[in-house]
Each structure stands twice: as structure tokens, then as C-alpha cells.
Amino acid sequence: MATHERLSLKPIVSSTRIIFGLLPGLGVMILLRMVIHLYRPDIEDAENRVRDHSFDELYEYYDFIIIGAGSAGSVMASRLSENPEWNILLLEAGQDENVLSDVPILFPALQTSSIDWQFVTEPSNDYCLSMVDARCKWPRGKVLGGSSSLNAMLYIRGNKKDYDNWENLGNEGWAYRNILKYFLKAENMRIPEYQYDPYHSTGGPISVEYFRFEQPITNIILQASQQLGYNIVDVNGKLQTGFTRSHATLHDGLRCSTAKGYLRSASKRRNLHVSVHSLVEKILIDEYKKAYGIIFKKNGKSRIIKSTKEVILSAGAIQSPQLLMLSGVGNIEHLKEVGIYPVAHLPGVGQNLQDHIAMGGHSFLFDNPYSNGTDYSFNLNSIMSIGSLIDFAINKNGPLYSMMEAEAMGFVNSKYQDPAEDYPDIQFFIAPSADNMDGGIFGKRANGLTDETYAELYEDILYKPSFSIVPLLLRPKSRGYLKLRDANPYSPPLIYPNYYADPDDMLRMIDGARIAQNLVDQPALRELNARPNPNRNPGCLKHHLMSNEHLECQARHHSLTIYHPVGTCAMGPANDYNAVVDSRLRVYGIGNLRVIDGSIMPTIVSGNTNAPIIMIAEKASDMIKTDWAVASNYLSKYQSNGAINMKYMELRNVQDVASKLDVFTEVTSLFPHLSKNLTLKYNNSKHETKPLHKSEKSKNSSFDKDVRTPIKSYATPLFNNFIPPDYYNTRNSAGSALFKPYPYNHYRTDKSSLTDFPDSKQNILNLLAFPSYASSKYSTHNTNNEGFYGAWSPEGNNQNNEKSHNEKQTNSYYTKDRSIQNEGRECQLWLYYNGVKYQIEI
Ligand SMILES: Cc1cc2nc3c(=O)[nH]c(=O)nc-3n(C[C@H](O)[C@H](O)[C@H](O)COP(=O)(O)OP(=O)(O)OC[C@H]3O[C@@H](n4cnc5c(N)ncnc54)[C@H](O)[C@@H]3O)c2cc1C
Ligand SMILES: *[C@@H]1O[C@H](CO)[C@@H](O)[C@H](O)[C@H]1NC(C)=O
Ligand SMILES: *[C@@H]1O[C@H](CO)[C@@H](O)[C@H](O)[C@H]1NC(C)=O
Ligand SMILES: *[C@@H]1O[C@H](CO)[C@@H](O)[C@H](O)[C@H]1NC(C)=O
Ligand SMILES: CC(=O)N[C@H]1CO[C@H](CO)[C@@H](O)[C@@H]1O
User: Fold this and answer.
1) How far is the CA of 317 from the centre of ligand 1 (A)?
2) Best of 138, 151, 296 for a ligand 1 pocket test (most atoms within 8 Å of beta carbon)
3) Does the structure show a pLDDT above 60 at 263?
4) What's the confidence (pLDDT) of residue 558?
5) Is 426 helix (H, G, I), strand (E, B) or coil?
6) Is the CB of 146 inside a 6 Å radius of any atom of ligand 1?
7) What residues does 313 pair with on adjacent strands?
8) 721 & 795 share domain
9) Could you give the angle at the alpha carbon of 80 between the alpha carbons of 209 and 72, nearest 5°?
């Protein structure tokens, strides 16, 4: 595999730096979370967030049971519950949406967090070679909104021909002319120039905007694309070939997941019950081969709930086939292998796996034309600055509103594709950054790149102005598959993507990379001295930089999924051996069961998959409404009556978990990987808790004036719906833990396992993870056992009564001392806890 032509210390230097980088990551998250709490109640949106329905108050029967609250499942729950005669249960294995995932810049940080299932592919000799263990990471959302709550928010519908092909394969009603109306139904176009365009509409649940903050280099790359002969077009309109600033699923600049767009309003309906932390283990199928319910587990307790009409499987392209197989629906031979009693032989379940694969490491350096210090591309230091935090908190703009992975994109034709067809086979993600720009904190970790590769590629160009043009294959011919690891619903399935199995895929990829190089050779970019990263992948040193062999080697080493696995329960006509569902998305051979999500795509669409999956669910809801219209005067004896509803309304606000905002637990449990290796510097000499006076603080107090005066009283928890991700599972005995992410390092939240070393680093870790625990344990003062629930010290604001409240009631508060750090960063956050001063670097 990797050829070592020279010995290098880079990997060691690099991994040391990354370990130090972990804590700043967590410090920033905590600070940002506090800022949102204080200044952005619009983001917390406490009133509208979905409330978890109590386990014991769930009905015995529902008309429809929907498995998975992802892109598709959220749409289904919202649309089906529009019919007040139907009771709907929506079961989601993950947690409620997290406040931080609204912030576009945090996109890469959400991967490997607790809202990510953290799947990995099986090792291969042909692709993902630069990744740890030759496994690519496959993040998927484990949260309300599913993958739409952690995706890159890019809004792309695909090519008209994709859908016409679906119809040609025998799927009636799926041609572009049939489905366009469902794209329109879902859309709320907020980009002014497209609002009155026949290809767009306003008023739908998913709003589409440009990212609110973009780097200057992006515009230069768009100029270069025109010099190369492409037009700037609406890639979601009449013609797809061309370039554009990215359209994104954003509402007022913040993430618009399907949980936000579809579920928040619907969840107030009395006929919709949403249950989170509820993993469905099996779909129940009777002797007549009809689905009649499910069995699921929550809080360590199992329950069977039955459906009077249908079970709807929307667990996504990895878990929908998994759950079908667990329920006995799949290839009989494979089911026998893992010891599952077969109910129906459907050999296509888990087959036909398609994904968009990209060539990573396609990074370019350039010279910043500004000499006054203003950035021209992504710069971690200016993003993690107090200025950008203030912009975000007060002005509602600034770099936290940017999504650095693709500010623009292009759809181009390789030399194997006839440009006259307007059916581009290559998509470019245009990023005003490269993996050198974050020191490996996010991008490297998200992709699973090895330390060695990262060091060789980026260590000597760290933080230099850069951009990336990442080519990806829009319609790969290779097909992969999924299998069960075993019969345990908590085991992640085996994933074999088979990237580049078809040689045609590699030819197109190499040509795509060449088009990207031509783009960089255009005058607009040449003027900035744009040039390829001179460092080569350590596995490809034997090839000449510009050769086809080198590009192929790079594609096989630096393989990047664009996170679009689909096709594993493909729709097709009855005579298609591998079809799993028919064109009304009903599972062949099983009654009252549909699959509605990305897995039904017979062929992958030529673009990002979120909007097409929302379209699929919009269309499916209409089909279901039509199919049951004959029985529309059907009155279920289990239908809710007024009494039940009253009870429900009371219950929905009762939480059996802490109702206080606790940013530390919330953030550390969202980012368990950041809270590991916590190397807090702390100063344990006793510090008087009396707040400092203004004069003792930093000379420059412009920040203090702005941010120290809370707009909202910090004393009122605005958002009390947070349930730590593994709350239910860790409180209960073994066997109930959700999938353990590879490499199976389970995050502990079990208090009893914590050791008690006063003033040790371990205790600081405990403290961050369990403030209330720590508070009761170490408090020498008369605290109110609140720990430090985000109490922001209004120090320097002596007239403020809240200060004394704060001083008396909690013995802990944050403050900030200005100091210049090595990299020119300007801020430090101090945490005072029981008279001890801790420094949190940001
Ligand atoms: C990191 C990332 C970035 C992406 N970027 C983009 C982008 O920029 N633009 C774009 O268009 N697309 C993007 N995508 C792809 C897109 O988001 C997905 O294709 C889409 O969200 C999938 O929708 P789905 O309904 O099929 O599945 P999901 O949205 O994944 O929903 C499945 C849901 O089912 C739940 N579930 C699974 N098993 C069970 C069970 N047994 N019991 C209960 N619940 C269960 C899961 O927790 C999840 O919430 C991205 C995806 C990822 C992961
Ligand atoms: C630096 O120069 C650019 C281009 O002239 C300008 O847009 C930007 O605002 C300047 N930055 C500062 C801090 O003056
Ligand atoms: C620790 O804090 C004390 C009191 O605030 C201070 O005098 C001392 O210099 C600090 N030590 C370090 C290493 O920062
Ligand atoms: C104070 O901060 C402002 C804004 O960041 C800056 O322009 C000014 O030069 C600073 N003043 C001092 C004395 O550091
Ligand atoms: C000091 C310490 O705990 N280091 C650990 C950091 O995490 C890595 C893996 O995530 C461990 O290998 C180190 O031992």
C-alpha cells in the first residue's frame, strides 16, 4: 500500500497538534451554545420544538406507524397527520434536534458527534486506502430530521432525465413531468430572482436560500468557470449544465432540516405522537404476510405497537434494508446465514447500493490579493474569533453562516458525455478552503484520513490560503451491497460500496479531475497564482504528478463519499428480479408495508439526494391518501377522543429528565469525541469569587460592553427539551446500548464509574460532563446544587442585580480575559468553579 520513500517526523508532529486541537473545539462549542442561549432564542425555538411522547402514554394501535424521522419520515408524519381521522406514531432511534446543528459552519463537526450513527465501510484494497483501516466513514443522522439534520444543506434536485429514466424502467408516475409538482410543494424559494420562476415556488415547508456568508475566492472561481466556457445557471431549473452559487436548505440563514420544516408545526397536532430514543427492532408480519406492527425499545423497555393501516419504513438507505432483513424479508440464503426465519424471499434487499464518490485532496493554493489582512478564503482563526461570535449573536451574519464545503458548485460533462444532452456526469464541489485550513480538527476527523496522509499532504501548508474543487461521479456504474453482520438489531450492517468496480467510473473521474485543473488554469485564478498543492498522497509518490496513474491512485486513496447511499430497496416493476417495492412503494409480497426513503431510488439521481428524497415522501403521502380514500369514512375504534387528548396535552410538557439548561452536559454529550483527551489547563490556586472590577479587566472592553449585558435574563431556561443522547441506554443494563460506533469506543455517562481524584484532570472531565454531580460532590459553599447551568457572570456591571443573584446562588461563572495567543487569536474563557479558576482555550 503506502510507499515510504522518506522517513518523516511529520505524522508525530501532526497528531500531537491535533490532540491539542481537540479542546479548543469543545471550548468553542460550549461558548457558542451559551451565546445562543443568551442572544438567539429564535434558534432555541423552545416553544415549537418537538416534544418526546411519554412511553407509557403511547396507544396500543395507530393507523400508521412510521419508522425513522429522517428526511422522508418527517415529511410522512407531517403529511399523513393532516388527516385528523388518522393517528400517527413516528418512532426515531435518535434524539431531538440539537441547537448547535442549526449553525451552518458547524456542518463538519456534526460528523462523529452523538447525532451521527458513525457507520464505516468494510476495508477494501481498491478504495478508501488513505483512511484509517482502509474504511471510509459513512455518517448518517441519528436525530429528528435524520441526515437532513447533519447534512451540508445543499439543495439540488437532480436532472430531469433521472426521473424520466425511472419511468422508462417501468415505474409509472415517476417521470419528471409527474414529480415536478412535489418539488414545488416542498419548496419555499427565498432567493428573489427565482421566486417567480415556473421551476420554483414559495410557501412550502423547506426554504431555500443562498448561504449568508461567502468568501471572495468563490466568486473568482465562478468567473473562471465562465472563462472556461460555462454559464452561471439555475441548476435546479431548465438546464443543469453550468455553475452556480449553492442553493441551500436554510431558513434565515440557518439549517432547515425536515424536522424544522415539517415536524415542528405538525408535532402540536393531537393525532401525531413522536417518540425519540426509540429503536425499532423488528417489523411484525402475520401468517398472511401482512405487516401489523412493530417492536421497539426505549429506556431499556420493549413494547409492541400495532398498526391498523400501514407500517411505513423510512429508516434510510442503510437501515431500511437492515430492518427488512431483521424482519425476515430479504435473500433467503443470507437470512439463513445469520439465523433469521425467512418470511419473504426478496433478493434485492440490500443490493443495488449506489453512492456519489469523489476524489479528495484536490486542493489548490493561491496568494491572497488583499494586503490589509482581510481573508480571501476560509480562515479558522477569524471564524473562531469574538468578532464573528458577535456578528452571529447580534448582527445575525458573519462567517458562522457559511458552509465551507461547497459555497458554489458546477455540473460539467467529461469527455465521455455528450454535452448536447444536458446530462452532466461530473459535479464539482467548490470550497473556499481545504483540509489544511482547520489543522485537521474537523475535515480530517470526519473523513477518517490517517495521520500519515494528513501530515504529508497538509502539514507544511497549514493555514495557507487555499481552495478545493472536488470532482464527483454523478451516475457511477458500480454497485455495492449491504449485509447483516448478525441477527442483532444493534449491530451495524456490513457495508460494501464497491467504488470503481466498473472501470468506466475511473475514466470519468480522471477526466473530471482534469476539467478541475483546466478551471484553475483560467486567467481569473491564474492572476491569484492558483496552483495545486505540491504535496502528494504518500501512497502515490511513485507516480508523476500530472499522470493519469497519479489521478487514479489519488482517487483510490483519497476516496470521499458525498454521503448519498441510495438504491438498497429499489423500486421496480414486478418482473424485475431485484425490485423490492412497486411504483407505489409497497413492498413486494408483504401487505401493509411500504418503504419510503432514499433506498427506493432505482438509480441514483444526478445531484445531492435530500431534496429528491423529500420529493419522494411528498409523492408517497399523496399516494397513501389516495389509496385509503376509499375507506375515508372509516372510523377507527381506537381513534382519539377528547378525553385522551386532554391528557396528552398535559403530559407533553412533562419531562422525566432534568429540565434545566445545562450547556456542559448538552455539548459534551453531543461531541463526546471532543470531550475525550480533555487537557484543560487549570489554575488551582484559590481565587476570590468576587467579580473583577472593570478597571482590572482588559484594556479593550468593546467586547465586554456588547456581550456582557444579556439581552434575555440568563436565569430563565429557555430550552428544556434536551435529553442527552444515550440517556435511556446508559441508565439501563447492558444489551440496550445503541450501535457502538467503530472502533467501538463507547462514551461513558455512567456516574458511578467515575473516579474521585480531587483537583485532578479526571475530575475536570467529570465536572464538565456532570456539573450537578460535581457540584454536590465538591461544593464547600452553600450552593443551590445547580452546578453551573450556563450562568453567565455579568461582571463589570455593578448596577445589575442579577450579579448578586448569580454570586449567591452559584459559585461558578465564566469570564473572559483578553490575551493574544500564538496564532494571533485574542480571547480566552475562564471558568470559575468553587474558587478554582479553569482556563478554557478557544
Ligand atoms: C454528512 C452528510 C452530508 C450530506 N449533505 C447533503 C447535502 O448537502 N445535500 C443533500 O441533498 N443531501 C445531503 N446528504 C444526503 C441526504 O441528507 C440524505 O440522502 C437524506 O437525508 C436521507 O434521507 P432518508 O429519509 O433516506 O434517511 P435519513 O434522513 O438518514 O433518516 C433515517 C432515520 O431513521 C432513523 N432510524 C434508522 N433506523 C431506525 C430504527 N431501527 N428505528 C427507529 N429509527 C431508525 C435514523 O436515526 C434517521 O433519523 C448528506 C448526508 C450526510 C450524511
Ligand atoms: C481590505 O481590502 C478589501 C479590498 O479593498 C476591502 O474589501 C476590505 O474591507 C479591506 N479590509 C479592511 C479591514 O479594511
Ligand atoms: C493562578 O492564579 C493565581 C491567582 O489568580 C495567580 O496569582 C497565579 O499567577 C496563577 N498561576 C498561573 C500559572 O497562571
Ligand atoms: C480595541 O478593539 C477594537 C476592535 O477590535 C480595535 O479597533 C482597537 O484598536 C482596540 N484597541 C486597543 C487599545 O487594543
Ligand atoms: C492522554 C490521553 O488520554 N490520550 C488518549 C487520547 O485519545 C486517544 C484515542 O482517541 C488515545 O489513544 C490516547 O491514549
Assistant:
1) 8
2) 151
3) yes
4) 96
5) strand
6) yes
7) 67, 595
8) yes
9) 45
pLDDT digits over 48-95, tens only? 889 899 999 999 999 999 999 999 999 999 999 999 999 999 999 999
**Spatial distance between the Cα atoms of 599 and 617, rounded to a whole number of angstroms:** 12
Is residue 564 annotated as a catalytic residue, yes or no? yes
Catalytic residue among 334, 564, 673, 693: 564
Write down which residue in 610, 633, 656 finishes a domain.
633
pLDDT, mean of residues 695-720? 32
| Residue range 568-583: mean pLDDT, rounded | 96
Mark whether 588 and 673 lie in a shared domain.
no
773 within a domain of the structure (yes/no): yes
Residue pointed to by grid coordinates 415536524:
263
Mean pLDDT of 718-738: 40
Q: First-to-last CA distance in the chain? A: 38
Report phi then psi at 676, rounded to 5. -75, 160
Which of 583, 614, 633 is the last residue before a domain boundary?
633
Q: Is the pTM of this model over 0.85?
A: no
Percent pLDDT > 90 in the chain is 60
Nearest-CA residue for ligand 5 atom 1 is 677
Tell me the one-letter amino acid at 842.
I
Average pLDDT of 217-246?
98
Residues 693 and 807 in one domain: yes
Range of the domain at 653: 642-842
Mean pLDDT of 690-700: 37
505, three cell numbers? 467510473
How far are the Cα atoms of 286, 708, 814, 832 from residue 838, in angstroms, in the given order? 60, 19, 9, 6
Give the chain's radius of gyration (CA, Å): 27
Q: Which residue has the cell 474504511?
A: 135
Q: What are phi and psi of 482, to 5 degrees?
A: -120, 145
Considering the domain architecture, whether residues 742 and 783 belong to the same structural domain is answered as yes
Instruction: Label residue 247 exposed, middle or buried (CB < 10 Å: 0-12, 13-18, 19+).
Output: buried
Cβ atoms 404, 426 nearer than 8 A: no
Proportion of the chain in helix, strand, coil states, percent, rounded to 5: 35, 20, 50
CA of 375 to the centre of ligand 2 (A): 9
